[in-house]
Amino acid sequence: MQATAWLMTALAVGLTIGRCFIHWRKKNRRLRWDDIFNVAAAILLIIHTTIYQLYIPPDYNSQLHAMGIKEGLFVGQDPIIHAKFTVADILLFWLLMYAVKASFLALYWELFNISMRFRIAWIATAVFTTMSFAVTWVSIFWRCGSPKDVINLSKY
Known about the structure:
Blueprint: H1 2-26, H2 33-67, H3 79-111, H4 116-142
Helix pairs in contact: 1-2, 2-3, 3-4
């Protein structure tokens, strides 16, 4: 599982670097907004994969121990650290997803410059995407009730 995550992350980062290199040479030494959002997504992917790899093995072993499958492998976790990793993982995941969406929206802006109707459709899509991002981001914190209950995410 860990090797696959790092292999896919390396592949995504490599393709992003290749894309930026091609666009840099082809577009008179400048990058477009879609390239910038794609680089942001690649950086967020590295951070997300790192946090996920640090967080999941102890959590996975804890779950196996709780189910009685692996005895003696339980690694005690501080509930505050567990909650912080959970929130960080969720937030990074959604930032990553919306950075990719922003990359596509920026690319479509370039493609849709042929028609005003396409641009209007793009604006509607961009507004919807922005609103859904805001709702998704804020709902992560609504999930636990009040901010003082963020540690108890697992009971919701």
